[in-house]
Amino acid sequence: MIVYQNNLCEISPCQLSGFCVGWKSPLDGETLHKILKNSYRIVVALDDQTTQVVGFVNSLSDDVYFAFIPMLEVLPAYQNKGIGKELLKRLFVELSSIANIDVLCDKELQSYYEKFGMMKSYGMVFRK
Ligand SMILES: CC(C)(COP(=O)(O)OP(=O)(O)OC[C@H]1O[C@@H](n2cnc3c(N)ncnc32)[C@H](O)[C@@H]1OP(=O)(O)O)[C@@H](O)C(=O)NCCC(=O)NCCS
Q1: Which residues of the chain form beta strands (DSSP E)?
Q2: pLDDT of residue 83
Q3: 22 Cα–ligand 1 center, Å
Q4: By three-state DSSP, how is residue 7 classified?
Q5: Which of 2, 60, 86, 113 sits at 20 to 30 Å (Cα–Cα) from 123?
């Protein structure tokens, strides 16, 4: 069974391996743990059989008007089972008082976010 939690309670870096598939330099468990620890709101999906984290989403925010969703990840073996959808649904509840929520994504994923009522927009980035 997949269980969801909105904190890092009892989750260690070694439970956060295998993410960032296809990245030139995938982030390791230690780095992902730090990212989630320092985030504004998070939702984590765990497989209660393996205790492995199988998906997560995080957000950054000024706690007033703007929030940004930098990462949404589901392990390949767990994709297309509704976990991503559940993570976002729960995150949007956490962010319900924030008027402006931004996410940058590939063009192919725009229709995914549109299902949550998000609109296409334009953006600019630095990538170092
Ligand atoms: C994108 C991602 C989080 C979706 O999670 P998931 O648990 O597999 O998604 P769900 O099961 O909730 O939803 C599946 C739906 O998403 C669609 N989808 C999944 N990945 C997609 C992609 N790369 N492009 C377009 N649609 C995609 C599926 O076609 C399916 O559509 P349907 O509901 O109309 O059948 C997951 O595929 C993933 O981790 N991808 C790699 C990281 C990534 O791209 N993250 C997004 C950063 S902005």
Answers
A1: 2-5, 41-47, 53-61, 66-74, 100-102
A2: 98
A3: 15
A4: coil
A5: 86
Q: How far is CA 89 from each of CA 23, 45, 57, 110, 117, rounded to the nearest angstrom?
A: 26, 12, 10, 16, 11
Q: Which amino acid is at 86?
A: E
In a domain, 7, yes or no: yes
- Determine, yes or no, domain membership for 23: yes
Percent of the chain past pLDDT 70, that is, above it, reads: 100
Number of domains in the chain: 1
In a domain, 112, yes or no: no
**Average pLDDT over every residue of 42-63:** 98
Identify the residues whose C-beta falls under 6 Å from ligand 1. 72-74, 79-85, 103, 105, 108-109, 112
Of the candidates 29, 80, 34, 73, the residue with the CA atom closest to the CA atom of residue 55: 73
Query: Per-residue pLDDT for 33 more than 90?
Result: yes
For residue 77, tell me if it sits in a domain. yes
Q: Are 4 and 56 in contact (CB under 8 A)?
A: no
